[in-house]
Amino acid sequence: MQIEATGLGKRFQRDWIFRGLTRAFRPGSATAVLGPNGAGKSTLLNTIAGQLLPTEGALAYTLSGRPVAVEDVPQHLAYAAPYLELLEELTLLELLRFHTQFKPLQAGVSLERLIDIMYLEKGRHQLVREFSSGMKQRLKLGLALYAAAPLLLLDEPTTNLDATGVAWYQEHVEATRAGRTLLLSSNVPAEYSFCDEELLVTDFQTGKR
Ligand SMILES: Nc1ncnc2c1ncn2[C@@H]1O[C@H](COP(=O)(O)OP(=O)(O)OP(=O)(O)O)[C@@H](O)[C@H]1O
Hints:
The protein has one domain: Rossmann fold (3-Layer(aba) Sandwich), CATH 3.40.50.300. Helix 5 links the parallel strand 7 (151-155) and strand 8. It has 209 residues and is an alpha/beta fold. The radius of gyration is 17 Å and the shape is globular. It has helices at residues 41-48, 92-102, 111-117, 133-145, 163-176, 189-192, and strands at 2-12, 15-25, 30-34, 56-63, 66-68, 77-80, 151-155, 181-186, 197-200. It binds adenosine-5'-triphosphate. Residues 3-209 form the ABC transporter domain.
């Protein structure tokens, strides 16, 4: 998905979080959205996801040369973030069946294959609520990385992952990012070192008031 941000700005009450952001995000690119805690990285991802309205400026989305209305962006989007909750009252298999009804997996990836990829075989019939935080994070990432969605947003993707989990993430983000538009919010170089572009949110904060 091609995304063109023009003069994009977001304000909460009287505080501008970012302002004057003009940038194109191309299919096949991976952009690291960087900045200190509270800089506005998640706010920017949520705005690009169409979940927050920009206060000023515009976002234009194009898929295979056709414009996509902002209200249709969610169907083309896979998003993993600490603040997006899993349905923890379901077992893993129930959750995967439910989730993939509205967010299908990539061609050739079955539910069983995804369970293997996520190393969650033993949790197949377990309530997600009982998963460790690392298991939940592998589940969130597996659902996003292997979704059939051209726009991939990852917010702090290695949250709760140990060193093995971080290596797992690096392997699978590489395996799934070709041709997609990826934006990744991070403070951890191991999460974003593969990205070909960087966007420092604080570059869009001078003179914003
Ligand atoms: N819904 C909201 N209403 C008011 N202020 C908000 C809202 N959401 C976020 N903010 C504020 O916007 C600023 C940016 O927050 P945001 O979560 O985007 O930062 P971040 O760079 O992702 O931070 P972190 O690295 O800590 O996750 C913060 O000051 C936060 O308090």
